[in-house]
Fold:
Amino acid sequence: MKTTVPAALVEPIEADQEIISRVLAGHRDAFGILIQRYSDPLYRHALGMTGSPDVAEDILQTSFIKAYHHLSEVRGRFDAWVFRIVANGCKDWLKNIRRTHLSYEEDDQPTTYATPEEELDRSELRMDLDGALSQLPASLREAFIMKHVEGRSYEEMADLLATTVGALKMRVHRAREALQALLEEKYAS
Structure:
């Protein structure tokens, strides 16, 4: 008698491989499952790296198209592979950007501040932090955002970025120091 394992108990990595096999066998619609599974965390990463919802969406869409066309090249974990595509898209965008300032003006998160003065202070601090983040090298910005914005563990970051935990701890440390120095320049006066 054959027993089936409930889908909830199947490891996501195994499930990803099964979906990839289905797509490669001609069931193209199955790729939508991978898109649905990974869109949110990948979008949050792209948004943190670019500071623009529109750019993040464009990078995500382009990355999924690229992933679909190169799906037969996946070796190992799909989530780490597609993350690298998105991360590289963000880095390429950052290399080509001519702006010196990132903005979250399109951020429509509800405020918890009681007064207009508090909201103004929050907006100014966010702009200052965005400006300081935009001055960091892409590798430091990426590590800082993954750790402090996305809340990832160093082990998860190391897996996704194919590097060591020690290297990432150093990047995050350097990013913090650089941000502190940049913000101290503004607020020391």
Summary: The first helix runs from residue 12 to 24. The CA atoms of residues 181 and 188 lie 10 Å apart. The helical segments are 12-24, 31-50, 53-69, 78-96, 116-135, 138-149, 154-161, 165-187.
